[in-house]
Amino acid sequence: MTHSPASPLPAPKERRRLRESKSLTQAQVAAKVGVTRETVRAWESGRSTPTGHKRETYAKLLASVEAERQAPAAKAAATATAAPVRSRRSVGRWDSAPLDRGQERGGGWVLPAAKAEAGENPGPAAAPKDATEAFDRLYTYAAPGLVRQAYLLTGRRTLARESVERAFQLAWQRWPEVAVDRDPAGWVRAAAYEYAMSPWHRLRPSHRHPEAPPADADDRALLDVLLSLPSSYRRTLLLYDGVGLDLPETAAETEATTPAAAQRLLHAREAVAEQLPALAVPDQLHRRLTELAGAEKLQAPQATLVRTDGERRTRFWTRSAIAFTVLIIGATALTVRTAPTRYEPVPAPGAVISDVPPRTGPEPLTRADKKLRDKLHKSAKSGLHRLAPEVD
Predict the structure, then answer these.
(1) In the CATH scheme, what is the homologous superfamily, with its name and number, of domain 12-82?
(2) CA angle, 157 as apex, 155 and 158 as ends, to 5°?
(3) 355, CA 20 to 30 Å: which among 249, 269, 272, 346?
(4) 347: which DSSP letter?
């Protein structure tokens, strides 16, 4: 009797990711497979593994979800091959295509050889020669789009450019970590968002004076609606409907669960649709966000300038830390040198005592006393006459 091989299953974490990508709950998966919700939870956590007929049913369900996820990507790739030239607004993505990861995690990353909108034949890009070239490539690739995204988050052009500049300076300081990251552009984007939405910017004097709004009335209305949203809702809406991330990636970047990110997205869309009914359709909202981001003339500084400013800032703070440490050591040494080595009790304050006669000293010598004293000093200091002196 021959046994058919067991149906292959993805890793436990991959099972959960596939379920969440289809917006299925554990109870729904359990109903389709014919098990309990606790069993599905155990399968996704790796505590147990399905067997028999339930394994085959579960594997087919996950395979169908994976096929549905890969179908749009294959269709988009075929469309891009048939028509390589397209405008930025037809794509609607500020980040263009994601960075191509190396086969190994230690191999760093490479950029696409050419952008589709340039009309060039895409091909594999040469690996960067050193860290400087790799950083410049990443900056050239991601900085223009990040500036526009930061502008939609803050509504301030200066703060948007500053956020992107600081994010790339931080990336240059931690380049060994960023270079091997699965998504370097996503790493920098998260850093730029965190800096742009930091609440301490409200304490800056420049924050008291708002910048000039967009020239177009529709753009002003959309920007006002975006800025009226809570920061978490605004960031989720921008990542999902603007950048184009899927829901699990949006939840991971906003440090929230997938259901929480979905609720934030729904509430943000409802708030936008309440004030701008024409943007109730997600596609229309996506198009208007892209147009609003592209309407402003926002330019990021050169990569060389950002890199040198970051190095200069690092040197300044390093030297300041060294100087402060030396100052603390000097103050500690001076304190040890001048501090008392033992405890010296403080004398108690004096108190007045009554009914005690004052202490008196010897009375002044008379003339006879002085004469006797002089005689004793002149006479011999030893002898019998010292024991029985004669009176003159």
Answers:
(1) lambda repressor-like DNA-binding domains (1.10.260.40)
(2) 125
(3) 346
(4) P
